[in-house]
Design goal:
The complex is a heterodimer. Chain A is mainly alpha-helical. Chain A contains 31 helices and 7 strands. In chain A, the strands form 3 sheets. A 3-stranded antiparallel β-sheet of chain A has the order 5-6-7. Chain A has a two-stranded antiparallel ribbon with strand order 1-2. The longest helix of chain A has 23 residues. The radius of gyration of chain A is 29 Å and the shape is globular. Chain A starts with 10 loop residues before the first helix and ends in a 6-residue tail after the last helix. By secondary structure, chain B is mainly alpha-helical. Chain B has 16 helices and 3 strands. The chains are: A mainly alpha, B mainly alpha. Chains A and B meet through helix 1, helix 2, helix 29 and helix 30 of A and helix 10, helix 12, helix 13, helix 15 and helix 16 of B.
């Protein structure tokens, strides 16, 4: 990037031209130029390592020297690069936090005590850092050795700050602050560093299977000191979405008083699975002083489907899971991790977003509407890509009803671990009455639905099997083909929460595609999607093909209500095979006729964008769909009305930057 | 009474159908019969058009032969040629094979068959090398010899595309012009749609063979990317400019996807070359007024940049490097400063 000064152009003129031009370039391009020393020299801009303090640029080395002075009881003689801001006062508190003041404005700097010549102060500051539990034992040993040798030099201090800034907690603080300052876009909500997700899981390298993960996680937890274990349990608490009571078991290694701290913290979180984790711990350690009362309170909240953590928290969780899934898929984050770990990491992150959201004033209806309009369809496509490997979990149902079902199930499991005669009667009664009430109110379906990690759990025995005698009425309904509403309801239940023995499936495999022709409008789309989901679960290509044929026939001859569902159909149809190569070929061949037959108009543009997004998820899928995308493009010539489209950028891309 | 098609024809030919209709009171023509008749009429008209076209060509050719402007080349093997290739092809030798065996003094062979023209030239049995041109090359030559004006060339190219000619080279200026001429309240005009078709139809039909057709592919991608610059620079309404840019961006064929079956060792480098050049073209618009520049920056940083950076993490830095070198280079007299 070194450019010799051009002899024929006056240097100042060139500099002015470059400075003015760089500002007009896209930010993603200009920012590289403004970070490059050679380019900065060429533009005549000051070169150096600057930091922004009090809205002004300060030279980093001078700032650190000034803070070192403050750490050693001296005044900080410091001015901003342009000399406009002078630091006129400074102070250091007992925890090693330095404050620089300019007039009535001030900026605080944590951990500055580490720059002090006072060894006691350095130890105290490091103790405070370690107490958070964010630093590993190994790193703590290294930093303790470093501060015993004297005050940290600039490089070491920056390294420690960088290390602290990479913790999940630092990410949460940053996201929270972006939301609070109204600067959060969807992109800001989802970190793109795989280290962050590994830290959420508390495991590296990532074990190959979920069962292995559970064992290693529990082993690692058992080896941690109380501070680090407490931190891990706070961080990983939403893992209670899986069965196995990992948080409860791991809490055995905490001192009783720390368990109380943990439970109180978890029950104060706004994400539902932290509340489940709180109950796991409280139930398991109900004999700890004060714990029984906490458990009583928590179980009542868990079983109450109107409780805000279940109801609002459940809705938040569905939205945050959609954002996380879609963006993680588009960034191909964790693409080389096993699917269970990818799914768990995404949902843990979504849980933390719910926690953060719980303390921010975000207008929920507007947020949900934005998510549903823009990013949820992308999350659905990402989910359908995963359905090839694991076709049972259906994330798009995540919401209060499913959360309530899972919470009640996990709580029941925790209570079931108590010897029958020792089980608190109130809890048993509560369990029975809530289930009965939910059955009456039509909320019970999700009690039987699979959890996000069930299909990876070696101990999971599958969805509840419908006995053959109970299937006969459904078969009869299909044969008669009259009661559409009832049939749709039964198929829907089957797709979400029940299973059919392979020997009893044939009437459904044959009957469902035939019956599908009777539906119209949204019912048709819903039943077709549900049917394809069942076909994928049963790995039945013939059934998927028969449904796709009906869908395509309707698509070609109409009426076809929502053209936006087309990508979901061919991706759901492709998920009936498990092998990657077969899947790619199938996705391409199923997409092709839809794209080939598609009419002009904005829906064709949406189809083109869906192909682009699927290609972002997986370049091999992009290649498999390239031909179909070309066919869709050939049909696309009529854009949406200008009034409707505020921006020419496709919604999917634009709304990644939508304000939360 | 139901009249079969043949019976209806006989009665009609015998002039009895009106009599019959008068007697029966009503003649009902079923919709399927009417549809079939319409199809037959349309097919007859199409065949008539083809016949007239062939007749026109025959007449033109006969006139040209008579006037000495065209001549018949050697259509069979010369006496004494006995090599194996000649023997094997003699039985069903078409004109193209004939000319390839004996070029008969021609300066160029114009052939729109991709199987032939992808080689660029051929060598006949006498060792004479003859360039192979396409219809588009003929247009280019006529234009360079002032036999066709700019607008006539554009119109001719458009007709070729509309006629289904694939892999027709795209002229950057032409794409820019039709982009600017489109009404982006609605979408691309017919000319731009024809250009789009000429890029994506061969792709969708799997006619494009990579790595053989890399040059065409790269030119198609870069030409569209450069048209995006022009859209931002020259379409008056900013919203329309943005819609045009987005439409064109979606139109850029993806080198990585389309070359997935190419097993050449340099495939990854070629993909990077195409995508970074296209990115450079889209990233280097710097001569816009403030409000437009803001909208362009937002468009790029929202739609183009993140996708490019995710797929090729070094792309943005490489583009910044190249662009800065370009911007910082001295401007020579008479040189454009917008990077075209």
């Amino acid at each position: 990037m070194e450019i010799d000064p051009a002899p024929s152009v006056p240097p100042e003129e060139t500099r002015q031209f470059l400075r003015a031009t760089v500002l007009k370039l896209p930010g993603m391009v200009g920012s590289f130029m403004l970070r490059d020393t050679a380019a900065l020299n060429r533009m005549g801009l000051p070169v150096g390592d600057f930091v922004s303090v009090l809205g002004q640029r300060f030279d980093r080395a001078r700032l650190l020297a000034a803070l070192r002075d403050v750490a050693n009881g001296k005044d900080a003689g410091l001015a901003s690069e342009d000399g406009e801001v002078q630091i006129d006062r400074s102070s250091l508190d007992e925890d090693g936090v330095a404050t620089l003041m300019s007039g009535d404005k001030g900026a605080a700097f944590a951990n500055i005590g580490l720059l002090s010549d006072d060894a006691m102060l350095r130890r105290h500051v490091l103790d405070r850092i370690v107490a958070k539990g964010e630093m590993s034992e190994e790193r703590e040993g290294m930093w303790r050795a470093a501060i015993e040798m004297g005050s940290l030099d600039d490089d070491l201090f920056v390294a420690l700050e960088t290390e602290s800034g990479a913790s999940p907690e630092a990410h949460f603080r940053e996201i929270g602050s972006e939301i609070a300052s109204l600067n959060a876009s969807f992109n800001v909500l989802v970190p793109v560093e795989s280290d962050y997700y590994a830290a959420l899981l508390g495991q590296w390298p990532i074990p190959a299977t979920f069962s292995e993960f559970r064992i290693k996680w529990l082993q690692a937890a058992a080896g941690l000191n109380p501070a680090r274990l407490l931190r891990l349990l706070k961080l990983s608490a939403p893992v209670s979405m899986a069965s196995g009571r990992m948080i409860g078991v791991a809490s055995d290694h905490l001192p009783a008083e720390d368990r109380i701290v943990l439970v109180e913290f978890l029950q104060s979180c706004s994400d539902p699975f932290s509340l489940v984790a709180a109950f796991e711990v409280a139930c398991r350690h109900r004999t700890d002083p004060g714990m029984r009362d906490l458990a009583d309170t928590i179980i009542a909240r868990l079983y109450d489907r109107n409780e805000s953590t279940i109801d609002s928290g459940g809705a938040d969780f569905g939205a945050m899971a959609a954002i996380t899934s879609a963006l993680a898929a588009r960034h191909r984050l964790l693409a080389d991790w096993p699917l269970y770990a990818r799914r768990l990491a995404r949902l843990l992150h979504a849980s933390h977003l719910v926690r953060i959201l719980g303390s921010c004033a975000v207008e929920r209806p507007a947020l949900y509407a934005l998510v549903n309009r823009t990013i949820a369809p992308q999350a659905r496509l990402a989910e359908l890509c995963d359905a090839r490997e694991a076709p049972i979990w259906q994330q798009h149902y995540l919401g209060p009803a499913l959360i309530h079902g899972l919470a009640v199930r996990r709580a029941s499991e925790a209570v079931a671990m108590i010897k029958k005669r020792e089980r608190p009667k109130r809890w048993v009664k509560l369990d029975a009455s809530v289930i009965e009430q939910d059955m009456e109110d039509g909320w019970a379906l999700f009690f039987f639905a699979a959890g996000p990690l069930d299909e990876f759990d070696e101990d999971w025995t599958g969805l509840p099997l419908i006995p053959a005698e109970n299937l006969e009425p459904l078969h009869a309904l299909l044969r008669e083909g009259k009661d559409s509403e009832r049939i749709a309801e039964e198929i829907y239940k089957l797709a979400i929460a029940f299973e059919v023995d392979p020997a009893d499936r044939q009437p459904l495999i044959e009957g469902l595609p035939l019956f599908l022709r009777r539906f119209t409008g949204a019912d048709f789309a819903l039943c077709a999607e549900v049917g394809l989901q069942i076909a994928a679960r049963w790995r039945n290509v013939a059934m998927a093909d028969a449904i796709i044929e009906v869908v395509f026939d309707r698509f070609r001859n109409g009426p076809f209500e929502d053209l936006g569902t087309v990508p979901r159909f061919f991706m759901a149809g492709a998920a009936s095979v498990e092998g990657k190569e077969e899947w790619l070929e199938r996705a391409g061949s199923l997409a092709h006729p839809f794209a080939f037959t598609h009419g002009d108009g904005p829906a064709a543009g949406n189809l083109v964008r869906a192909f682009d997004i699927l290609g972002e998820f997986d370049p091999a899928l992009g290649a498999a769909l390239a031909r179909a995308k070309s066919f869709a493009l050939l049909a696309y010539g009529r854009l949406p009305k200008v009034e409707a489209a505020k921006s020419g950028a496709p919604e999917d891309a634009a709304d990644q930057n939508a304000q939360v | 009474m139901f009249l079969s098609m043949i019976a209806a024809h006989y009665l009609l030919d015998a002039g009895l159908l009106p009599e019959l209709a008068r007697y029966a009171g009503e003649l009902v023509v079923l919709p399927e019969v009417a549809e079939m008749a319409d199809r037959e009429i349309a097919a007859g008209e199409a065949a008539g058009n083809v016949r007239r076209g062939i007749e026109r060509i025959r007449l033109s050719l006969a006139d040209a032969l008579a006037a000495g402007r065209a001549r018949v080349g050697p259509s069979r093997q010369r006496r004494g040629d006995t090599d194996d290739l000649s023997k094997s092809v003699r039985g069903d030798m078409g004109p193209v094979v004939s000319v390839m065996l004996d070029s008969g003094g021609i300066e160029a062979l114009v052939c729109d068959d991709r199987g032939m023209n992808k080689y660029g030239h051929f060598t006949d049995q006498d060792g004479r090398s003859v360039p192979i041109l396409t219809s588009v090359d003929v247009l280019r030559i006529l234009h360079s010899r002032n036999a066709l004006t700019d607008s006539e060339v554009s119109a001719a190219r458009e007709r070729l595309r509309m006629g289904g000619a694939g892999l027709v080279p795209i002229d950057p200026e032409e794409v820019a012009q039709v982009t600017i001429a489109s009404n982006w309240a609605f979408g691309p005009n017919a000319e731009l749609r024809a250009i789009r078709d000429s890029v994506h139809l061969p792709l969708a039909r799997k006619v494009v063979q990579l790595p053989k057709e890399r040059l065409w592919f790269k030119m198609a991608a870069l030409t569209i990317a450069f048209a995006i610059r022009k859209a931002w620079q020259e379409i008056e309404d900013i919203t329309h400019a943005e819609r045009a840019a987005t439409y064109l961006f979606e139109m850029i064929p993806d080198a990585e996807y389309w070359s997935s079956g190419d097993e050449s060792a340099d495939r990854a480098l070629w993909v990077q070359d195409v995508s970074r050049h296209a990115l450079w073209a889209m990233a280097s618009v710097f001569d816009l007024p403030a409000e437009r520049a803001e909208r362009y920056r937002l468009w790029f940083d929202t739609l183009v940049g993140p996708i490019a950076e995710r797929r090729d993490p070094g792309a943005m830095e490489a583009v910044a490097r190249t662009l800065f070198s370009f911007l910082a280079a001295p401007i020579m007299e008479g040189e454009s400063s917008d990077g075209d």
